Amino acid sequence: MQASRFTTCSFLILALGMAVTVALSQQDPTATEVWNPVPPKIDPGHTARAPSDAVVLFDGIDLSEWSGRNGTPEWEVEEGAFTVVPGTGDLATRATFGDVQLHLEWKTPLVLTGEGQERGNSGVFLMGLYEVQVLDSYESHTYSNGQAGSIYKQYIPTVNATRAPGEWQSYDIIFTAPRFTSNGQLEEPATMTVLHNGILIHNHVTLHGPTTYIGRPEYEAHESKLPLTLQDHGNLVSFRNIWVRELQN
Question: Which backbone phi and psi does 196 adopt, to 5 degrees?
Answer without folding.
Answer: -110, 115
